[in-house]
Design a protein that fits this description.
Layout: E1 2-4, E2 7-8, H1 19-28, E3 35-42, E4 45-46, E5 66-72, H2 73-103, H3 107-134, H4 143-162, H5 166-201
Parallel strand pairs: 1-5
Antiparallel strand pairs: 1-2, 3-4, 3-5
Amino acid sequence: MIIIDGQRSDLSVKSFDNLEDLLVKVMEDEQMNERIVTDVLVNDESFSEIYPHQAEDVVAQEIEKVEIRTVPKSEMAVNITRELYKVINLMNKGSRQIADLFRQADDMEALDMYQDLLEVTRDFLGMIGILRSEFNLQDIPGLESSLKKLSELFSEMVDVQENEDWILLSDLLEYEFLPLVEEWKKIVAFIQDEIGRRKEEG
């Protein structure tokens, strides 16, 4: 038995070799074009891949029931933009803490947190890029200039880090990185509004 968003499907589990084949077939349906899978339950137990194509290893003979839950792409995107606000707040708080630690000469702790901050920033920019291409958002006010400033700032921060000038790095975080983080709030707000508007237009 296959259940998709609470509705029993005409498809039969036994007509597939494994779970991956089944999921690929379900997602090929036109109705799934604008939807994203949030949960897969196999025999009433949650399934998520620990390694790529793990679903291939779940053979159809072992499956009695598959339940697939999805949400509209736009709804998922709105949820992501809400998460991005939380990330901005983390970046804001983190960069202040790192600057303070460098000024207190707690370099090891500061450098650990600094690496985390760079990783979070990269992930954040990656999510912005995905939303931008997924929803074809070409003209986001302030995005290009903000990215340019951030790229230049990162280059400067790399040089400063190589010279181990921690006081200058803390100044860059506080006086240049933090204002940029604040700019991202407006950019995320624009993306959220734009996606929300398209969602309403259906």
